[in-house]
Amino acid sequence: MGEGVDMFDGYTGDSFKLHVMLFCTINEFPAYGNLSGYSTKGHKACPICEEGTCYRQLQHGRKIVYLGHQRFLSTNNPYRKLKKAFNGCQENELAPMALSGSQVYERVKDIGVILGKTQKKALQATYGRKEKHVCDSIIETLLNIQGKTKNGLNARLDLVEMGIREQLAPISHGKRTYLPPACHTLCKQEKMTFVSFYKGILPKNLRYTLTRLCFLFNAICSKVIEIEKLDQLENEVVVILCQLEMYFPPSIFDIMVHLIIHLHHVERFIVEEAIEFCADYLSYVKAIGVPRSRDHGRGVGKGTRSAKVVTLNRAEILRAHMYILNNTEEVIPYLSAHKDIVKRNNPRMPQKWVINEHNKTFLKWFKQQVQVDRTTSDTLNWLSSEPNFDVICWSGYDINNYTFHTQKEDEKSTTQNSGVMVVAESMHFSSSKDKNPVMASMCYFGVIEDIWVINYTSFKVPVFKCKWVDGNTGMRTDDLGFTLVDLEKEGYIEEPFIMASQAKQVFYVTGSEHNRWSVVLQDRTIHYTDDNDEAVLDISETPSFSSNMPTLMSIMK
User: Fold this and answer.
1) What are the backbone angles phi and psi of residue 408, rounded to the nearest 5°?
2) Residue 437 burial by CB count (10 A; 0-12/13-18/19+): exposed, middle or buried?
């Protein structure tokens, strides 16, 4: 606003003119051209490559595509020598250099800035994400969607004109033209399966490339990005685009696909600018428009669906009670002392027998110790007594910024909220005769069968009763690092409980390749509002889809 607005400073008691300046905007790429004046179409559409943009005008598709991503590879990369897999030529060119800060300054230092509404163009600082456009183009081609696919007759004729992938050239039969299947061509049944899960349908190398593209977007969209990983992402995105050039027709490589190669530059800029701005100005400011989780500041959680009171038998409640004791910090010294007593009294017995005897006799011994010691806390006094056999059962529970449901509740819905994971340290035995067990941390996966709130009179402890997957026969990791579980392989039947505060939510996706095996995924946390069950997404870290992922260079071999 050129003239400004009269304002009054209540602290100093002075009046002043308030002016507002538009510092920068963040928009999708088409808006970049409207706001900055840079042409986002044509031969030099990339605002980073500029004069060094590698483009090609397709003769039959009649569109401009942006290929030649081998230029961004290291000079000794074997992909540079491949001809027929790319554009028919060996790549010897180097990637264009991005403008430095001083070069940018030289370009903009003489721009006249006129305050007020007469200024029609604003300088654009960055551009938006390209993930949706890229994913849409790939899926439309894989599913051969009419009018959307990039693998039509004109795309095949362009391959012929470029002199590459002769095996995909159109074949004429009278009035009909036959398009030979490409590596990404799917039959009708495979298209139906693809909608559920694409693993096992596409060729291995293509599947690896698409999966790695998902990993890349997953990493870039994370709430936290380590600066050191940006260099790794920079190298990987180049190889991903080169492999996409090998498998997909040139018509898919419009400017939006090409811009993936520069996303790491945008991330570096955003991270630096955001940190500087927030550190100086927003350290004590509440975010506007970001909903606060309804569990914010509430560690004990809250039951949400179908509450009822159930009377449990003594054996069931004591199993849950024993688990709570084993995971309460104040009780740990008593657990260690009792194990030592059992072991000292039975020196010839194996470790597994000692643990079983400890579990059988600890409750009685613990109660006696607490009763003798008059200095124990109220928490220990209540824990040493048996909890109330009447427990509150819920079908839904909110805790740890997750919304959990029981498996039966999930069966009534199209969503999945009963998957659960816990990381626990436990004693591992190789067999019943193993005399040297090993303590190790392990991820346990299962589904929630019941949600109980155990009543200790002065406080309550929510627990999940779960059906766990056997860690030996029901879990494995595939060649892409995905964790696979067989939900029919039940294990740890005698240890079904975890405390609700320990639970992390997971989702199980069944793929055709694995039949009974389900892929384990973690996602952002979601809550439902108290009023009308409207979903609210928490702003939090997106966990990686897989662990121990193979590098792209290992896939290339």
Assistant:
1) -65, -40
2) middle
- Tens-digit pLDDT profile for residues 125-159: 333 456 677 888 888 888 888 888 888 888 899 88
What burial class does residue 542 get, using C-beta atoms within 10 Å of its C-beta: 0-12 exposed, 13-18 middle, 19+ buried? middle
- Amino acid 317: pLDDT: 92
Distance CA 330, CA 135 (A): 51
Radius of gyration of the CA atoms of the chain, in A? 31
φ, ψ for residue 372, nearest 5 deg: -75, -40
Per the structure block, which two tokens stand in for 162? 């470029």
**Overall size of the chain counted in residues:** 557
3-state secondary structure of 28: coil
Spans of all domains in the chain: 54-95+125-281, 294-311+389-538, 313-386
**Two tokens, residue 397:** 């529970």
- Cα torsion 213, 215, 219, 222 to 10°: value is 110
d(CA 196, CA 164): 33
Q: Which two tokens stand for residue 447?
A: 């589904």
DSSP conformation class of 256: H
* DSSP state letters, 292-314: PPTTTT-SS-EEEE--EEEEPPH
- Structure-block tokens of residue 539: 């702003």
Q: What is the pTM of this model?
A: 0.66
Tell me the DSSP string of 262-276.
GHHHHHHHHHHHHHH
Interior angle at CA 483, CA 481 and CA 486, nearest 5: 145
- What are the beta bridge partners of residue 447? 419, 467
What is the CA 78 to chain-centroid distance, rounded? 32
The architecture that CATH gives domain 294-311+389-538 is Roll (2.30)
Cβ atoms of 501 and 400 within 8 Å: the answer is yes
At residue 428, φ and ψ (nearest 5 deg) are: -110, 130
Give the DSSP per-residue string, 127-165. E---HHHHHHHHHHHHTT-TTT-S-SHHHHHHHHHHT--
What is the per-residue pLDDT across 227-278, written as a single tens digit (0 to 9) for each? 777 778 888 889 999 999 998 888 889 888 898 888 776 666 555 556 555 5
- How close are the terminal C-alpha atoms of the chain, in Å? 59
